Amino acid sequence: MSEQQTIHLIVTRQDEPNGTPYQEEFKIPYRKNMNVISAMMEIQRNPVNAKGEKVAPVAWESNCLEEVCGACSMVINGRPRQACTALIDKLEQPIRIEPMKTFPVIRDLIVDRSRMFDALKRVKAWIPIDGTHDLGPGPRQPETERQWRYELSKCMTCGVCLEACPNVNSKSNFIGPFAVGQVQLFNSHPTGAMNKEERLGSLLDDGGLQECGNSQNCVQACPKGIPLTTAIAKTNREATKYMFRKWLSM
């Protein structure tokens, strides 16, 4: 790669939310240690396509540039991932860059991830507290449980697990693996467990746990290596117990 002087990109673009997608090719100068974000910045600096035509710069999102914010999710060479950690030297050319198809496209590579934030509201992915006064030290917790919650807390709402999941499609309302992981995160906390049944109940409605086909694509695609399938299995077991308790109390 070091001998190559240019980088060949094929970007799927869309000028507006209801516009027709089209592909545009770019050839930009190669520099050592570039990632896809730096390639996008080069196009932004000099927005000329491979035909030599002046075009509008490619629109994309990014923020932290260290795989923490989740903003730069896109499909690169057929794989949903973070553009900031997609190194040019490790990608086969031409590099094909597309927006995630699971979400509505706003423009070019920018998508609307509102469904993810709506899902977090649905499962109440927070711990309610009474007022803003000092509550004192939290409950003591075993280290193994703390480590388990830490792994779940790495979720950056990037959308990659939804893009990789075959059960997230136009024929299914599946809430997505990330939401189940967040239910497990808060339900396994001593204080969060106060709202455990409420969260479990939200996952038994339309688009809940029953829509998961256990393909395990999510855990393979997750940029943070979150044990999503383990979280889904644990939550499934807890939801089943909750459902039986509810049935027996009727």
From TrEMBL:
Keywords assigned by UniProt, alphabetized: 2Fe-2S, 3Fe-4S, 4Fe-4S, Iron, Iron-sulfur, Metal-binding, Oxidoreductase, Tricarboxylic acid cycle
Entry cofactors: [3Fe-4S] cluster; [4Fe-4S] cluster; [2Fe-2S] cluster
Pfam (any one): Fer2_3
GO term, biological process aspect, one: tricarboxylic acid cycle
EC number(s) on file: 1.3.5.1
Domain of life: Bacteria
Single GO term (MF): metal ion binding
Domain 4Fe-4S ferredoxin-type: residue ranges: 146-174
Enzyme class: oxidoreductase
UniProt signal peptide: none
InterPro entries for this protein: 2Fe-2S_ferredoxin-like_sf, 4Fe4S_Fe-S-bd, 4Fe4S_Fe_S_CS, Beta-grasp_dom_sf, Helical_ferredxn, SDH/FRD_Iron-Sulfur, Succ_DH/fum_Rdtase_Fe-S, Succ_DH/fum_Rdtase_N
Protein family per UniProt: Belongs to the succinate dehydrogenase/fumarate reductase iron-sulfur protein family.
The name this protein goes by in its record: succinate dehydrogenase
Lineage of producing organism: Bacteria, Bacillati, Bacillota, Bacilli, Bacillales
